[in-house]
Amino acid sequence: MTKADSPLKTTRARPTSAYRPLGTLADGVVVLQPKVKPTHFTNSEIRKTIKKILETNTDDC
Amino acid sequence: MPADNRNVFVNCPFDDDYRDFFYAIVFTIFRSGFYARCALEADNAADNRFDKICRIIRDCRFAIHDISRTETSGNPPLPRFNMPLELGLFLGACKFGGQAHRDKTCLIFDRDRYRYQRFISDIAGQDIHSHNGDIGTLIADLSAWLRDQRGGRNVPGGQAIRSEFAAFTETLPLILAGRGLRSEEMTFGDYCSVVTQYLVLTG
User: Fold this and answer.
1) Higher model confidence: residue B112 or residue B104?
2) Which fold has domain B7-202?
3) What is the pLDDT of residues A27-51, one digit of tens each?
4) How far, in Å, CA of B40 to CA of B171, rounded?
5) Share of chain B above pLDDT 90, in %
6) What CA–CA distance (Å, rounded) separates B20 from B139?
7) What is the mean predicted confidence (pLDDT) over B131-143?
8) Residue B200 is nearest to which of A22, A37, A57, comparing CB atoms?
9) DSSP letter string over A4-60?
10) What's the DSSP call for residue B15?
11) Model confidence at A2, in pLDDT bands (50, 70, 90)?
């Protein structure tokens, strides 16, 4: 059988979970990534902002 | 409906007076490892609101309905009936949606446990929870219910989530100020993003 005669390979789409885990908490609960996107900032921007505030709060203690 | 469906439809008022309750519901849902869905999730004027709600209900195995604000107002005094309507849609989907929707379950809240009998008595027999206008009670009942749905033994109790929510609400104005955003400008997408990123960074 030549290469041209070989049956076409069909690739089946890998089933993907509807949910993307964002992170796992200390108690094992998996926080899911919201499907709806933020309007006024990116996830990365809000993460940086929260980190900064939490660090400031820790420094104040 | 897939067994791993973790979508929770939130059917409640979205006005300023109810905002803290709404925020508590969304926080508790994500904190318990579920996924909050509501009519606010897409702001598309071309999308018929009723169609959008039907689509979300179709996608959700779980729902929380708060009918506590079904009360008369305006002139002439008439009740806002969106919450009971959406509750009816959800119950209808369970009954008539076929195999895929038969395992839908929901939690119903009102201010007082038996008040609903005066305006929607046909749902008598459902287990109606009363939050008495108290956010702590709402969080405790909702988190206990979500824990039961998935056997989530590692999900903390209502008291712990209540404390976490209190800490979060103290930090939220600072987070918004850090982004130059006023609380009334925050969209549902913004709030979900802040909640989930905060949980992961503090958890």
Assistant:
1) B104
2) Rossmann fold (3.40.50)
3) 999 999 998 899 999 999 999 999 9
4) 23
5) 70
6) 11
7) 95
8) A22
9) TTSPPP-PPPPP--S--EEEE-TTSPEEEPPSSPPSSS-HHHHHHHHHHHHHHHHHH
10) S
11) low
Q: Are strands B128-130 and B105-110 parallel, antiparallel or unpaired?
A: parallel
Phi, psi (5° rounding) for residue B130?
-115, 125
A27, A56, A48: which is closest to B161 by C-alpha? A27
B179: chain A residues, CB-CB within 8 Å = 40-41, 45-46, 49
Q: Do A50 and B199 touch (CB under 8 A)?
A: no
> What is the distance between the alpha carbons of residues A39 and B121, in angstroms, rounded to a whole number?
40
- Long-range residue pairs from B80-87, CB within 8 A, at least 24 positions apart, any chain: B80/B13, B83/B11, B83/B12, B83/B13, B84/B119, B84/B120, B86/B11, B86/B53, B86/B57, B87/B11, B87/B120, B87/B123
This model of the complex carries an ipTM of: 0.88
Amino acid present at B44: N
Residue type, A7: P
B170 residue type, one letter: E
CB contact under 8 A, B189 and A36: yes
pLDDT at position A16 is: 45
Q: Which of A44, A50, A57 to mutate against chain B (most B CBs within 10 Å)?
A: A50
Tokens at B200, concatenated = 């992961």
From CA B70, how far away is CA B110, in angstroms rounded? 9
Q: Are B18 and B12 in contact (CB under 8 A)?
A: yes
Q: What is the pTM of this model?
A: 0.89
Domain assignments of chain B as residue spans, ordered by start? 7-202
DSSP B105-132: EEEEEESSTTGGGGT-GGGBTB-EEE-T
CA angle B112, B117, B120 (to 5 degrees): 115
